[in-house]
């Protein structure tokens, strides 16, 4: 085991119809953009049937975001229940990635979907003890959207007020890295500099953009598409900054203790994840509907169809954890001073994934982990 690095500071933490905005804001309240409060709402799909695995219940954590649609669809369509047989599924939703890591550390969640920055931070802060990444889930779904009356080109972002969801979160690090690549100076802690970086949850971003107090935002889906529905335009898709337009947005993580004690359960969850991603690829329209239905079940509100469709088009669902891009994101954060280490040695255990891919007749993931 490597010794834990010292604390990482910052990484711990308009013209659409009125009805569209109202419904969208209601949805955002339950989509990981408000208080860091876990909920147990949601359906686990069909009841468990068959022999029980090595635990009677597996607790699965996820955010009700479209970038977590593998989990949304897996639960809504019963993929997890089928693979887990007699073991029950206990889904638990969270409003932010850091609380997923907290729950994993506290033993209140066994397996979870989360973004790269919380996974990187949780792994490094624990000296490698907190988690393992066992599968990929999603790529893409992040855009820079702007007020077209104020920003007409990438150069005009300089001097403007741009929102990201949280200091040191995945989108925050991505924007800071992109700005640095253009030669702009921004203090990563205060957000002050050649661009005024406003760290705020996405519900507030939607209101602030509509009121004119923001010029743009670097945000994930569905927030980007909600802002576009208000009159913003997409200035940059983050996918355009990555080789092959692929970069990790969501991975599947597990507690190492749970992985060691219950490999059969981890294998079953990963098989269900692979099956859900295959179904999403084969039936994209039905999958989008299923994801929307699960979000409505969680929030009590349906995401407007136009927003759902636009947001869905920007996301690619993949079993590949895209290890090189996770390593690159850690390096970016370290260069910005948000991490003291970018050594992710040991963060992956792709055994469950490759066993699942082999059984499904799919190509194995052979890329080396960072």
UniProtKB/TrEMBL annotation:
Q: Subcellular localization, per the record?
A: Cell inner membrane; Periplasm
As recorded in UniProt, coiled-coil segments are none
Task: Name a single GO cellular component.
Answer: periplasmic space
Give GO terms: molecular function aspect only.
Answer: ATPase-coupled transmembrane transporter activity
Which chain regions cross the lipid bilayer?
none
Under the heading Pfam families, the entry gives: NMT1_2 (PF13379)
The entry assigns this protein to a family as follows: Belongs to the bacterial solute-binding protein SsuA/TauA family.
Q: Would you tell me the protein name for this molecule?
A: NitT/TauT family transport system substrate-binding protein
